[in-house]
Each structure stands twice: as structure tokens, then as C-alpha cells.
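Example 3.2
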Amino acid sequence: MFGRRKAKRDTADALYQGISRKSDPSKGTPAEMISKAKEVLGSTKAVAQRLGVSERTVQRWAAGDSKPRFGNARKLKNFVRNDPQMRRAQLSNLRQARIRNQGSRVKARGEMGVTAAGKKYRRTREIETELSPDAMNEIMERWLQGDDAGALDALNEALGNEYVGGFELADALEGLEFLR
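Structure, written as C-alpha cells:
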């Protein structure tokens, strides 16, 4: 996954792809996002109810007859990315059980480092370390609830405990993988 010159991604995006092993569904077209939401919720009506719009509006977006306005586009993106039911659908039961029971080996590349005596020692690094089942459970629970900031805090805490104290990821990574 790690090439020499990969574009940096938002750390939350890297976390999403690292845990789910799937691309972020909110990066798709409105039709693609609605299709994914319909797979999970079962109907256009359920999607419309979750978004607070009419069923006909969702049908128009899905068919490409119209595009959601800014506020509704933001609601749709936020829903398919952060809704706990959508997140659970992105993660296979087998992968979830394996990570929760065995922990995971995490591999990260990008800006990261330690903070000591009020000074940040960050540079581009590639690290690989084992995270315990307890640490992975905390990360997974927060991620599955749609709390990216909490999941990243839990990941930084786990890296600080299991890699080196005070260690933290920066705001942009080239890659993040959970290898189990």
C-alpha cells in the first residue's frame, strides 16, 4: 500500500480506509451514496426519512435528474460516512471479530512523532507496531459510532502506550493499515 510518493490524506480518511479496507463512501456521487445507503437501510423511503427530505427527492438524486443542494449534499455525505449503521455495513463481521479478539498490527506512514518538553519532534516516518485487543476495541467502538476524532485520540493513546510515549500522528498521512 505504501509507495514512495503517495498523496497525503486526511488522517480521518486514512483511519476510515485502514479499518474498513474500503474507500470512503462519501467520496462518491450522490447516486452512489444513495445506492449504498439503500443497501444498508433497505429502501429509498428509509434513506429519505434519515435525511429529512421526501422520497421523490431522493429518487431524483439517485436517477441523476437533480443534485442535492449544499445543505442536503452535506447531510448525505455526513450520513453515509458517519452513521453507525452505515459504518457497521462497511466492516465485515469476521474482520471486526478478528480485530477485537486479536488486536492488530498497525502500519502507518506520514508525518508523526513525539512531543517532549513542549516541543514536537515530527518527521516523515513509517512505523509498524502491535496494538492490543483492548486498544483496538476502544478504537473500533469510537469509529463504529462515527466518532473519528475519538478514534484518532484512542489510536494516538495506544501508539503512545505501545510504541513510544508521547507519540502521535499528524493531520495528514500517506497510509494507515490495520494488518489483521
